[in-house]
Write a structure and sequence with these properties.
Helix content of chain B: 25-40%
Low-confidence stretches of chain B: none
Structural class of chain B: alpha/beta
Low-confidence stretches of chain A: none
CATH class of the largest domain in chain B: Alpha Beta
CATH topology of the largest domain in chain A: Rossmann fold
CATH superfamily of the largest domain in chain A: Succinyl-CoA synthetase domains
Number of domains of chain B: 2
Number of helices of chain B: 9
Order of helices and strands of chain B: EHEEEHEHEHEEEEHEHEHEHEH
Shape of chain B: globular
Distance between the termini of chain B: 20 Å
Largest sheet of chain B: 7 strands, mixed
Largest interface: A-B, 48 and 60 residues
Strand content of chain B: 15-25%
CATH topology of the largest domain in chain B: Rossmann fold
Mean pLDDT of chain A: 91
Strand content of chain A: 15-25%
Number of helices of chain A: 13
Mean pLDDT of chain B: 93
Oligomer: heterodimer
Shape of chain A: elongated
Chain lengths: 400, 299
């Protein structure tokens, strides 16, 4: 899920004609002051980070006029909020609030869920029980959410009177926006009735489904420019994943010393369990890209694994009856080991790879004492046991 | 008998002109699957491995009645292809694509349920009833090396692990009635509990093996069926991913769904509820044959 910053979530809602307060992002204190100077009723300056609980982190500030906006933006820019660097702020028209409600949509199972509550504006976990019930309902994905369904929810949450029809209609339109955005979460907190009696989406947080980015080119572009991890090996794989063709690849470094080039699904989970159970410690988690004629992504992942200074062994373990060509994987391994020279040359490697191209694969590593290509039919457990033993022996040798 | 597919199942391949579809279709035909037609819009009139290609599902089914459809269309086109298959009257749909948008998944799952259509996947490498038929790439070019006909039902969240289970069983001299990879995504067409129920009701299945992962309520639902006495055949469960509990919450490993957001969706919690409900929990693949042999039927 890609969590959008508030300016982008609100731009999406505004473009669909939904009532979002006027606001603009600013990347300098002066720019923030300029935006605020057009807001006679006062403004709110908020740090633009893809995280919730900004109020508690001091990243939301009500200001009167340009000078206060400049000062607030100056304080926020360059700091870190909930782990995210603040590079931009959002300057928004201040809304005078008559009442505040809570609304969210969530998709994490077979049916979308909607939550509404009469108490908005605070962290929903902290809402007092006296503010009325949190009403939760599932939505039939084929039927959608009608305005009368939504009115029913708000009535159950304790609302009554003239606000019910417009908030019901707005809720139904927000659900349409949630679906149209391929959002997995959309939280409106607070959903405000202002002094004029109009509804306004003051707090808006949205997380969207990366699998649907073919329908949302601007967000796909955003994901490509997201901050890179600090670890150089993780960074190189993120870059490869963005820039090279082919399926997804991932590399996450862990504390151990046994590198894992394994399938991304069940076998990856299972082998990780096995290593721990047998006393080994995995050096990484990875998602191996599908094997095709272009092996650059595979090379990026394997290179990251081999560059980890803690590495004392490598397990290449895949399920039986791989349709993918084994020789592409093994050739990539051999090339990289040779490229990386002395340190990689003696690294214990266990290969459990059965499938197309297997005779060629075995021939490629024949005569390399550090590479153990286990016999066809060897279990995942026996392969894991072997690499745990070899890595432990390598550790003892280097300690001696 | 078997579940889901048998030697009589007539199959249409959607997206049959793509590379993976051609490859799998060839090996399915060699295995004995009755592939009766293919569909690729704009390519009607061609043939693939002797199978006639049509532009629409309606035309394909009008020319060759079919029971099941296997989809090789990319994630972006899955929703429309599944809706077309349901509309044309197919009774079972298997979706191989991964990375299908979740909003599309919940719509096709709901539409299939409403129409009484069995939806396998998304993100599955297939289903095999050994010696009878297979849909998808399951078993590769030599399914007989892994799957022999027998009386054990297998349902797995991971396609690759169906092969490992099949192999572990075969090495112990045990065969399989049907093995199905249900898909590892957050939301799947059929749930693990539904597959297990089909095995329970299949007179040619004596016991069931399931492979589970962290995330979702699939395994808990199976435990609930066991607890309620709905499942009386022996059930062996192998649940991977306990290692995740050593790492920070919310970190994702592998399958999109295999992320623990709730403590009751961890591998350990699943093992515990399954064991309490009467399932035989395997520590490793190698334990499965022994557990099956030792288990008295609870019927």
């Amino acid at each position: 899920m890609l969590r959008l910053t508030e300016d982008r979530a609100k731009a999406w809602l505004r473009a669909r004609g939904l009532p979002v307060p006027d606001g603009e992002p600013a990347s300098s204190a002066d720019a923030a002051a300029r935006v605020a100077s057009d807001m006679p009723g006062g403004a709110v300056v908020k740090a633009l980070v893809p995280a919730g609980r900004r109020g508690k982190a001091g990243a939301v500030c009500v200001v009167a006029g340009a000078d206060e906006a400049r000062a607030a933006a100056g304080r926020m820019l360059g700091t870190t909020v909930n782990g995210h660097p603040v590079q931009r702020v959002y300057v928004e028209q201040r809304i005078s609030i008559r009442s505040e409600y809570y609304l969210s949509f969530l998709l994490s199972g077979p049916q979308p869920e909607v939550l509404v509550s009469r108490s908005g504006g605070v962290d929903i976990e902290d809402a007092p029980a006296s503010s009325g019930p949190m009403v939760r309902a599932t939505i039939d994905p084929l039927r959608g959410l009608t305005s009368w369904d939504a009115m029913e929810l708000w009535l159950r949450a304790g609302l009554s009177g003239a606000v019910v029809p417009p908030i019901g209609a707005l809720t139904a339109r927000l659900y349409e926006a949630f679906c149209a955005a391929d959002a997995l979460v959309l939280e409106i907190n607070p959903l405000v009735v202002d002094e004029a009696g109009d509804l306004s989406l003051v707090g808006s947080m949205m997380g969207v489904d990366e699998n649907a980015f073919f329908r949302h080119a601007p967000w796909a572009e955003l994901a490509r420019t997201e901050a890179l991890p600090a670890n150089p090996r993780e960074r190189s794989v993120v870059i490869a994943n963005r820039e090279l063709p082919g399926g997804e690849c991932q590399y996450v470094e862990l504390d151990g010393d046994i590198g894992l080039l394994v399938g991304g699904g069940g076998a990856g989970l299972y082998q990780h369990d096995l290593l721990l159970e047998l006393g080994g410690r995995p050096a990484n988690h990875c998602v191996t890209p599908p094997t095709g004629s272009d092996n650059r992504k595979l090379k990026a992942v394997l290179s990251a694994i081999l560059d980890n200074p803690k590495l004392r062994g490598l397990l290449i373990g895949f399920n039986f009856a791989q349709m993918a060509r084994t020789d592409i994987r093994v050739r990539t391994l051999v090339e990289l080991l040779d490229e990386k020279g002395a340190r990689a040359a003696g690294l214990p490697v266990v290969i459990r790879l059965f499938g197309a191209g297997e005779p060629d694969s075995r021939a490629m590593v024949a005569g390399r004492a550090n590479i153990h290509y286990v016999p066809r039919g060897t279990s995942l457990k026996d392969a894991a046991r072997l690499i745990v033993r070899l890595a432990a022996e390598a550790g003892e040798r280097s300690a001696a | 008998m078997s579940i889901l597919i048998d030697g009589a199942t007539r199959v249409v391949v959607q997206g049959i002109t793509g590379a993976q579809a051609r490859f799998d279709t060839e090996w399915c035909i060699r295995y004995g699957t009755r592939i009766v037609s293919g569909v690729t819009p704009g390519r009607g009139g061609e043939t693939v491995h002797g199978v006639a290609v049509y532009d629409t599902m309606r035309r394909a089914l009008a020319a060759h009645p079919a029971d099941a459809s296997v989809l090789y269309v990319p994630g972006a086109m899955v929703k429309s292809a599944v809706m077309e298959a349901i509309d044309a009257g197919i009774r079972l749909v298997l979706v191989t694509a991964e990375y299908v948008p979740l909003h599309d998944v919940v719509k096709i799952v709901a539409a299939a349920r409403r129409a009484g259509v069995r939806l396998i996947g998304c993100n599955t490498n297939g289903v095999i009833s050994p010696g009878r038929s297979k849909l998808g790439g399951v078993g590769g070019m030599d399914p007989g090396e892994i799957y022999v006909p027998g009386r054990i039902g297998v349902c797995s969240r991971s396609g690759g692990m169906t092969a490992e289970i099949g192999l572990a069983l075969k090495q112990a001299g045990i065969g399989v009635s049907t093995s199905v990879a249900m898909g590892g995504d957050l939301v799947t067409g059929m749930s693990m509990a539904e597959y297990v129920t089909l095995f329970e009701d299949d007179p040619e299945t004596d016991a069931v093996v399931v492979f589970g992962e962290p995330g979702t309520r699939n395994e808990q639902e199976v435990a609930e069926l066991l607890g309620a006495g709905r499942i009386r055949k022996p059930l062996v469960a192998l649940i991977a991913g306990a290692f995740q509990e050593r790492y920070p919450k919310g970190m994702s490993f592998g399958h999109a769904a295999a992320m623990i957001n709730r403590s009751d969706e961890s591998a350990s919690a699943k093992r515990r509820v399954l064991a309490e409900a009467g399932a035989l929990v395997a520590e490793a693949l190698e334990d499965i044959p022994d557990l099956l042999r030792r288990s008295p039927s609870r019927s």
